[in-house]
Amino acid sequence: MPLPKTDTAENPASARTAVVEARNLVKRFQGMTAVSDMSLTLSAGEMVGLIGPNGAGKTTLFNLIAGSLKPTSGEIWIGGRDVSQDSPEKRITRGVGRTFQIPRPFLDMSVLDNVLAGAQAQDGEKLFANFLRPGHVRRQEQAAREKARALLDFVTLSGLESQPAKVLSGGQRKLLELARILMADPQAILLDEPAAGVNPALLETIMKRVIALNAQGKSILLIEHNMDMVSRLCSRVVAMAQGKPLAEGTPADVAADPAVIEAYLGGAA
């Protein structure tokens, strides 16, 4: 999986098919509105940054798109299909995977087995297939193991495949989680603060892998407070505040928007 030579993603959003659409989303929790009339489109091959101050509703929006929360109103479309009421598992099969700000590996399982846990539609999970088609099950499991090893190599963790996941650093766990969701071959990847708590060397590795995935055609929606990372990766940025859309445009235009400065700094600027 070669890395691209460029260090930036400059993919025009025009003339592209929408992979993920959030349409007029609202999410309320016991009278509190976390997301209000929020719409967002992620096009094929695009890399979009989602920014906003703490409490802006970014992670809630991610949870709505990924399916761990259901909207109070509004719709989520993936690949031209309304998936608003579908489970997270169904949305993975529709082509959307997500990572978490704090990775969630199976700590006592090996690094390789953690990646294998992301494999979808494995016949070996069916009781009768193991008795009626054992050769097919073995071949499928071998193919999954080869794919998992290739992904570990891609995220620079191949030398740790037999180690338990609990030995990994925070940044390595984020790379492991990325490899695990790639087992499902999603077309769109939701990355929740991949730079948070990561040392500079590993952050560069994460960024290069994200750039490589985008160059391979993956669409990426990125929550991030590290504006240098957002500026290097994303051609378009959407800003949120108080659950609502605030601004949209290039990283430079959004960072200079008075409403965005007000939301982050409360007018102190």
TrEMBL record:
InterPro entries tied to this protein: AAA+_ATPase (IPR003593), ABC_AA/LPS_Transport (IPR051120), ABC_transporter-like_ATP-bd (IPR003439), ABC_transporter-like_CS (IPR017871), BCA_ABC_TP_C (IPR032823), P-loop_NTPase (IPR027417)
Keyword terms, alphabetized: ATP-binding, Nucleotide-binding, Transport
The keyword Transport is annotated on this UniProt entry: yes
Gene Ontology, cellular component aspect: plasma membrane
Domain of life: Bacteria
Record flagged with keyword Nucleotide-binding: yes
Record-annotated ABC transporter domain positions: 20-267
Family according to the record: Belongs to the ABC transporter superfamily.
Protein name as catalogued: Branched-chain amino acid transport system ATP-binding protein
Organism: Neorhizobium alkalisoli
